[in-house]
Specification:
Layout: E1 2-4, H1 13-22, E2 27-30, H2 37-47, E3 55-57, H3 64-67, E4 71-74, H4 76-80, E5 91-96, H5 99-103, E6 109-114, H6 132-135, E7 145-148, H7 157-162, E8 167-170, H8 172-175, H9 180-193
Parallel strand pairs: 1-2, 1-8, 2-3, 4-5, 5-6, 6-7, 7-8
Organism: Flavobacterium flevense
Domain Thiamine phosphate synthase/TenI: 3-173
GO biological process, one term: thiamine biosynthetic process
Length: 194
């Protein structure tokens, strides 16, 4: 189960991130699209370098080595304009919006976010254009994990995993909630029981 950062700074963000790690968060995607290099460095340092192996950088990939981060994420746009990855042992992920895109990914990607699966909790008017549960029946790529993103919450985790996704990613159910840790634990319990 993956958690993605809120794109902008919010109150108690670092405390929430630390609490999520304490509850067993495996991977945390640092997705701050408008942050400068300095802001990314400061954000990661504030999280704590002891968590660097559980962090995934979405931007300023060249900082990964200095920050002790071995995971980077390519947006769809960055994937079509590949950035040279200097470390062949680096773990990479990406974002896609159709099963055809997913099926055509190279084996270099450990996992890919397919979104939106449900109507987004964090983005207004961002909903699936097609039934992705029908779409993923056309899956031919089994080298890359397929991760559901977009509107994922405790109410639909079981359905999501039963219908063919390998894992889930949480964003709005964490950051657009007054009870982010409770929501995380509920989703985690469902994932572990699956």
């Amino acid at each position: 189960m993956i958690v993605i950062s809120n794109p902008i700074a919010i109150a108690n963000e670092i405390n929430t991130i630390h609490a999520l790690f304490e509850e067993g968060m495996e991977l945390f995607h640092v997705r701050k699209p408008n942050y400068s290099e300095t802001e990314i460095k400061d954000f990661v340092a504030t999280i704590g370098l002891e968590y660097s192996q559980k962090l995934v950088l979405h931007s300023h990939h060249h900082l990964a080595e200095d920050l002790g981060i071995n995971r980077i994420h390519f947006t769809e746009k960055a994937r079509t304009n590949p950035i040279r990855v200097s470390n062949p042992d680096r773990i990479i992920s990406t974002s896609i919006h159709s099963i055809n895109e997913f099926n055509s990914l190279s084996n270099h990607y450990e996992y890919a976010f397919l979104s939106p699966v449900f109507s987004s909790i964090s983005k207004e008017n961002y909903a699936p254009k097609t039934d992705l549960f029908e779409e993923i029946k056309k899956r031919t790529n089994f080298n890359t994990q397929l991760v559901a993103l977009g509107g994922v919450s405790a109410a639909n985790v079981k359905q999501t995993l039963e219908k063919g996704f390998d894992a889930i990613a949480l964003l709005g159910t964490i950051w657009n909630s007054e009870k982010p840790i409770k929501n995380f634990i509920l989703c985690q319990q469902i994932v572990h029981s699956f």
